[in-house]
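Journal club prep — side note

Before the paper discussion, L.F. wants everyone to see what a predicted structure for a comparable chain looks like in token form. Sequence:
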Amino acid sequence: SSRNIRAWTLALRNLGLLYNKMDGSENREKGEAYLRQACEIQEELCSRERTPENRGRLIRLVLSLAEYYIRTGKHADIRQAQTLCEKALHMRQELTAEKNTPESQRALALACSRLGWLYHEKGSQQNLNQAAELYLKAYRIRKDLAEELQTPGSRRELAGICYSLGKLYSSYQGGTYFQKAWDYYLEGIQITEQLNDEQETAASKKSLGMSCRAAAALLYRQGGRENLLKAVIFWGRRAREIYEELAVELNTPEIQKE
């Protein structure tokens, strides 16, 4: 039955994720095999029962397999991850067009950001432009969702894509791109600070520290007295304090060295 198939694919996915966390190439190969099997079974189910629920599960499984290939870091695996992310994005766009809900919009933004990250990592100007297009689509979706839902999760995801856009535009040359990078970093920092004020967690602190450090590095590279003063503020007063507090809270002094 469909219920049994769903339970089986879920079990295979969990086994795949478990093996992928273990050391050793043999375990990782087992993880890949389980994830691939889950995708194949779910794809077969979708060919017979093309419901939104079945297709949504297939998309999640495809992205799980893509995540496996991303983590290996091998060039050939990154290409496979890109193919899988493109497939997931195409399926998600079709599904969102048929069933437009906040959850489907959130999933579409996730697919865009995953594929955008892959293009960003590849680094050529053409790839960076494709990454920007995908990141901006994810940003627009997450901005609308954050305004509509006003939940910590939706705002956290908006801050995350702001960080990605800041990092992307930092890769470009020229004052226009510097300003874009700075604007996105600052927007993400302001959102994360608000979230941190509402409910301070180690994760939100670390996220804020990373964003402040990235913004400071951007200002430092740009140069000029005003930018250097801003960099001191962002790194010296904010990011450093955050990292030092985290080191004490988590009893991990190595955080201070990141």
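L.F.'s comment for the group: The radius of gyration is 20 Å. Keep this in mind when we get to the figures.
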